[in-house]
Amino acid sequence: MGEKAALLYGPPGTGKTAAAHALANEYGLPILEINTSDQRTQKMLKNVEQTAATSQTLIGGASKRLILLDEADSIHGTADYGGKRALTELVRKTMQPIIITANDPYQITPALKKYCRTINFRKLRAQTILALLKHISEKEDLKLGLDVLEAIAKNADGDMRAAINDLQMFGSGLLPTEQQPRDKERNIFESLRLIFNSQTCAEAKKATQGLDMSPEDLILWLDENVPHLIVDPKSLAEAYHYLSHADIHLRRAKKTQDYSLWAYAHDLIVAGIAVTARNMKWAKFQPPSLLAKMARTKTLRETGNSLLQKIGERTHTSKRRVQTDILPYIRIVVSNAPEHVLSEITKYYGLEEAETNLLVGKPA
Known about the structure:
The protein is of the alpha/beta class.
C-alpha cells in the first residue's frame, strides 16, 4: 500500500503544525489548512476530496497545493459519524500532498494509517525551549532574567507553544509571584476521587478544575458510581435528590440554549455529592453504561450505513434496496463460504474490517 500522506503525531506544542508550514514554505506550496476539531468534517472533507482527487489545485490551476489536516484525532463518532471515513477517502484518492497532525495516534483508524508515513514528534527538551526563548527575548527586547526564562522552559513540560504563551505573559508585565507547574488536564477518575472525598462544597467544586467534560457527561459518571459507593439509603436518596435537580437545570439549558444554567447544575452535582457522601464503601469507578451503549449503537449504525452504501455503489441500487433484496443473499453466500471467497467479496466491495465483521455477523 503506497504512502500518500504524512501523519505527524505527538504531544501539543511540539511543532507538528509549524513543521507542515515550514515544509510548504520551503517548496513554495500554497497551503490549505483545515482544523478538524472545529468543523463538521464529513461534508467539508467530501468537498475537498472532489478537487483533490485530481492534479488541479482547489482554486484552479495545475500546480500543487499542500493540504494540512490539523488535529485529525479530534474526529470522533459523536461529533461527525462519517468524518473518519471521509478523511480516509480523501487521502486514498488525492493527487495533492497531505500532512495530517494528531496528538493521539491511537485515535487514527488503521484504514487511514495504512496510507500514511507516521512521524513521531516528541516532547522538547527544556534546553531546546530555553534557546528559542532567549532568541525571542532578544528580538523583542524583553527585559527578563535568565532565571525567569529557565523557569518558563522547565515548567512548559516540553510544550513550546505553552512556553511562548508564558513568555508573552511575562513580557506584558503580568508577572506571577512565582512560576508554578502548568496544570495538566485532570482525568475523570481523579476528579471523582476528589469529589467523593471532599469535606466541603468548595473542595468539591475545585475537584473538576482542569477537567475537560461537560456537566451533562459528569452527571452520567456520578449517576453510575453513586450507588456503588454510598451505602446509607438516606444519604443515597439525598445524593439523587441533588443530581435530579441538577438534571432539571441541564434540560432547561438545552431547551432554552441558555448555558449559563450549567453553572448551577455543576454546583448541584459536585456539592450535592460532597455533602451526602458519608460512610462510603470502596468500589472501583466505572464509566457510564449509558455512554458505552450509545457509543456501540452509533458505531454499529455508522458501519451498517457504510456497508449498504458500498454494496449499493457496486450494484447500482439504493441502500434500501440493498438492505431488503441484496444483503440477505450476500450473507447466505458468505455464511458457509471458504476464507478466500470472503476475501474476494471483501475486496470487490472495498469493505473495511468492521464492515466485513458486520456482514458475516461477528460481534463488534
